[in-house]
Amino acid sequence: MRIDKYLKNARLIKRRTIAKEACDQGRIAVNKKIAKPGTEVKIGDIIEMTFGNRKTTIEVLALEEHVTKEMAKMLFKIISEERLEAE
């Protein structure tokens, strides 16, 4: 599944276009590599998202095409959330 679609389905980002923009801006990494919107993710991948001064790291647990709000929480596991220091 494409990273932009996964982030939207998992409800980590509200809309796919916003997920695409985040990838284009270099804010999303999959397995330590900056992700393009079309980067494929699979179960077990580690995704790092940086927004503002927050960095969230998650592990992909499942890939689903159609997801309810309750199911979305089961698609990933949060590994860490950290605040980045202002430069």
UniProtKB/TrEMBL annotation:
What's the superkingdom here? Answer: Bacteria
**Its gene?**
rqcP
Q: Which InterPro entries match?
A: RqcP (IPR025490), S4_RNA-bd (IPR002942), S4_RNA-bd_sf (IPR036986)
Keyword vocabulary terms for this entry: Protein biosynthesis, RNA-binding, rRNA-binding, tRNA-binding
State the family named in the UniProt similarity comment for this chain. Belongs to the RqcP family.
Question: Membrane spanning segments where?
Answer: none
Q: What is this protein called?
A: RQC P-site tRNA stabilizing factor
Q: Per UniProt, what is one Pfam family of this protein?
A: S4
Partners and quaternary state?
Answer: Associates with stalled 50S ribosomal subunits. Binds to RqcH, 23S rRNA and the P-site tRNA. Does not require RqcH for association with 50S subunits.
User: What job does the chain carry out?
Assistant: Key component of the ribosome quality control system (RQC), a ribosome-associated complex that mediates the extraction of incompletely synthesized nascent chains from stalled ribosomes and their subsequent degradation. RqcH recruits Ala-charged tRNA, and with RqcP directs the elongation of stalled nascent chains on 50S ribosomal subunits, leading to non-templated C-terminal alanine extensions (Ala tail). The Ala tail promotes nascent chain degradation. RqcP is associated with the translocation-like movement of the peptidyl-tRNA from the A-site into the P-site.
Instruction: Decide whether keyword DNA repair is in the record.
Output: no
**Per the database record, which ranges form the RNA-binding S4 domain?**
1-62
